[in-house]
Design goal:
single chain, 304 residues, alpha/beta, three-stranded mixed β-sheet, 17 helices, disordered N terminus
Length: 304
């Protein structure tokens, strides 16, 4: 048993569940770092590129967990996590004693803690480890990761996290990582809503769009995240690096956490409504655009 643990620590076999925009890029970095990697995605076609680079492909999450030491997952929401972890072919049921799970999805703190408790009953460790950053940061290994769970498990996983992120922060017990991520995404969503309102006010007041955006970008009050979206606003084009549908999902998680902790968040609730209005338009038109498209929503509200 000791020999197996030592081998796992020196050269663990990794599994990665979820080959979406973020997951595929993170998995690619682990493969480039030389790890023995097995991947799984519900739509197998999304695994092809990594398979061509040398990754093995599992038929089910359970198959993946059965042949790996550390299972990383990055999927859409609570329901997706529940399905790949505790479903009929789920990873938790097949995981061997001592397996570590690094759950990188943005999910609710309640789901994160439930996953931790179920895993603990099976002799398995779980870290909730959501990330801050979009597809460029995932590709470059420049994400920021917030981690909840047992500190000793976090310490053992530092090398793997280091292949994905410029920095990781241990936040405390299970659920702490996703709680930190919700705090960060509160600022992310509100920051874009504030930008949308400022741009709309300027345009409605007669300012020229290009000059308005140029001057806003030169001020110290805009965050790097807000500044990174000015080009979208200038071109009135919103290619998705962080899709609006995911921002809307996160607003829901944020406000649900606020309700359960009796935390008033009136500005966040208002921002969610604007996000929901834009999501309805995109869904009707079959579009999947960036969350910065709320700027366009505000402009349309006042008929700029």
């Amino acid at each position: 048993m000791t020999m197996t643990t030592d081998n796992q620590q020196s050269s663990p076999r990794l599994g990665f569940i979820g080959m979406g925009a973020m997951g595929s890029r993170m998995a690619g970095r682990l493969l480039a770092a030389g790890y023995d990697l097995t991947v799984y995605n519900r739509e197998r076609e999304r695994t092809r590129m990594l398979e061509q680079r040398g990754a093995k492909v599992a038929e089910t999450p359970g198959d993946l967990a059965a042949c790996t030491d550390i299972v990383i997952s990055s999927v859409a929401d609570d329901a997706a996590v529940d399905n790949v972890m505790t479903g009929s072919d789920g990873a938790l049921a097949a995981a061997r004693l001592g397996t570590t799970f690094i759950e990188m999805s943005t999910i609710s703190p309640a789901m994160s803690r439930r996953l931790y408790e179920v895993a603990r009953g099976k002799g398995v460790s779980v870290l909730d480890s959501p990330v801050s950053g979009s597809t460029p940061q995932a590709e470059q290994g420049q994400l920021v990761i917030f981690v909840g769970g047992e500190k000793a498990v976090y310490d053992r996983c530092q090398k793997i996290l280091g292949a994905l992120a410029r920095e990781s922060f241990y936040m405390g017990p299970s659920g702490s990582g996703v709680t930190m991520k919700l705090c960060v995404n509160t600022l992310l969503g509100l920051g874009l809503q504030a930008l949308a309102e400022a741009v709309t006010l300027g345009l409605k007041g007669g300012l020229q769009r290009e000059r308005l955006l140029e001057v806003l970008g030169g001020t110290v009050v805009l965050s790097p995240s807000q500044k990174s979206k000015l080009e979208n606003v200038l071109k009135d084009a919103y290619p998705a690096t962080f899709p609006l549908r995911l921002m809307l999902k996160d607003f829901g998680l944020i406000l649900d956490a606020a309700m359960h902790s009796a935390t008033p968040m009136p500005i966040t609730a208002a921002a969610q409504q604007v996000c929901a209005a834009e999501f309805a338009k995109q869904s009707a038109a079959g579009r999947d655009e960036d969350f910065s498209s709320v700027v366009r929503t505000m402009e349309q509200m006042v008929q700029v």
